[in-house]
Amino acid sequence: MVNMTEAETATVTSKSMVTIPARIRRKYGIKEGMKVEFIEQDNAVLMIPLMSLRQLRGIDKEHNEVLKEAIRELNAEHRKEAKE
């Protein structure tokens, strides 16, 4: 569901270019040279910022323990299934 109080408007130029509003760029970390992906969904177009591999490096650090625990649980589940 779209929160209309956070809606932003931009104008398409004669060369089909759009300036992404500053608040949106800051919020999603969109910087010059970054790639974005456009996805058609129903009657809307989603714009998804794509991170480079360099930007993704270390992104899991804050969730490191949760990820390790999930891996442990999956391994235990696989061992249990293999014994059965």
Summarize the structure in words.
The chain has 84 residues and is an alpha+beta fold. The protein has two domains: 1-50, Pemi-like Protein 1, Chain: D (Ribbon), CATH 2.10.260.10; 52-84. It contains three helices and two strands. Strands 1-2 form a two-stranded antiparallel ribbon. A hairpin with a 2-residue loop joins strand 1 (35-41) and strand 2. The longest helix has 20 residues, at 64-83. The mean pLDDT is 86.
What topology emerges from the helices and strands here?
Elements: H1 22-28, E1 35-41, E2 44-50, H2 53-56, H3 64-83
Antiparallel strand pairs: 1-2
Please give the alpha-carbon distance between the first and last residues. Answer: 45 Å
The value of Rg in angstroms is 20 Å
Parts with pLDDT < 50 across at least 5 consecutive residues:
none
- The side-by-side strand order for the widest beta sheet comes to 1-2
Strand element count: 2
Which class best fits the helix and strand makeup? Answer: alpha+beta
User: What is the CATH architecture term of the largest domain?
Assistant: Ribbon
The count of helical stretches stands at 3
How is this structure best summarized?
The chain contains 3 helices and 2 strands. With 84 residues, the protein is an alpha+beta fold.
Features:
single chain; 84 residues; alpha+beta; Pemi-like Protein 1, Chain: D; 2 domains; two-stranded antiparallel sheet; 2 strands; 37% helix
